[in-house]
Amino acid sequence: MAKPRDYYEVLGVGRNATAEEIRKAYRRLARKYHPDVNTEPDAAQRFAEITEAYDVLSDPDRRKTYDQFGHAGVGAGAAGFGQGPFRPGGFSGWGGRGGGFRGGASSFDASDIGSIFEEMFGARGPSPFSTAQAHRPQPSRGRDLQHKLTVSFLTAARGGKESLRLTVPGSSSTQTVDVTIPAGIEHGAKLRIKGKGQPSPHGGGPGDLILTIEVGAHPLFRRDGRDLLVDVPITLAEAALGTTVTVPLLEGTAQIKVPPGASSGRKLRIKGKGIADAKGRRGDFLAVIQIVAPAELSPRGRELLQALAAELKNPRETGPWTS
User: Fold this and answer.
1) DSSP strand pairing (253-258 vs 243-248)
2) Residue 106 forms beta bridges with which residues?
3) Rg of the chain's alpha carbons, rounded to an integer?
4) Hey, is 124 helix, strand or coil?
5) Region 66-95: what's the mean pLDDT?
6) How far is residue 259's CA from residue 241's CA, in Å, rounded to a whole number?
7) Residues 6 or more apart from 183 whose CB is under 8 A from it?
8) Which one-letter DSSP state was computed for residue 276?
9) What is the rounded distance in angstroms from the CA atom of residue 73 to the CA atom of residue 85?
C-alpha cells in the first residue's frame, strides 16, 4: 500500500505553522477540491485527505501526538486516510450525541469545518457534512457574469433605458437584456441584473449579470460628483467690462451675469441646476469662465489694444510674483 502523505505536506504548510495558517490552508484547499465545485475524478479523495489532515493538525493534542509519533500515533491507515473520519468509499460512522464522526482512534467534531463551508458557500445549499447528502452535488447558483456597458453622458445624468445583446452562456445564440440606468450614475459604478448570469450546473438558480458602467464624454458638459460644469468662453472686453451670457443646462438654458474683471477659471454658480441622483439629491451648475484672446487682429484692433495695454497695470507686479 502507498505510504501515507505527511499531513503538513497535504495542507502545504510548515511544521511550525500557526493554527490560523493551518485553518487558512484548509479553507483554500477545501474550496478547490470540494466535490460540489471540482469535477476531477480524484477530487473527493483529495478532499477527504485534506480534511483528515485538518482534523489532526487543528486539534492541539492530536497535532502534538502526530508530531511525536507520526501517522501511527493518530490512527491513520496505510493509505493515509483509511481509518480516520473519512474513507475512500465515503464517510465513516456518524453518531453520538456530539454529532461528530466516529472512526479510527479519535472522535471528529464536524462543527468547526461545517462552519467554514457555511461561510464559503453561504446559503447555496446544505452543509457538505450531512450524512444524507455528503456525496450528492447540491443545488447552487450559477456563476455571475461580468460585462461593460457604455452609456451617454446625458443618459447617465438623467437616467434612462439601455438594451444590451449578450451571447447566451453555453450556446451561440444571443439574448437581449433591458437595463434601467438610474439617474446620476457615475463612471465605474456597477449594476446587478438578477438571473442573467451563468446557468447552474446542479439545478440551482442562474447567477447574476454584473455591469460596469462607462460614461461617455459630452462636448460641453463635465461633472464633479453631482455638480455640472460648463466652460464659458468670453472676450477680453467682456471679462473687463462684465456681461450676461446664456448657458445651457441639462434641461433648458439660463442667463448668468459675468461681473467686471472676471478672470479665467472663475466659477459662477447656479444652485440646484446640476445632476440629481437616484435619491433626488441635486448638485449645482457651475459656469467656468474662460477668457479667449483673439487669434487675429485688425490694424485698428491692434492699435486699440496697444493703447489699452499702456493703461493697464502689470498683474505680475503684485502678489507672489514680487517675492
Assistant:
1) antiparallel
2) 103
3) 35
4) coil
5) 53
6) 8
7) 157, 158, 159, 275, 276, 277, 278
8) B
9) 15
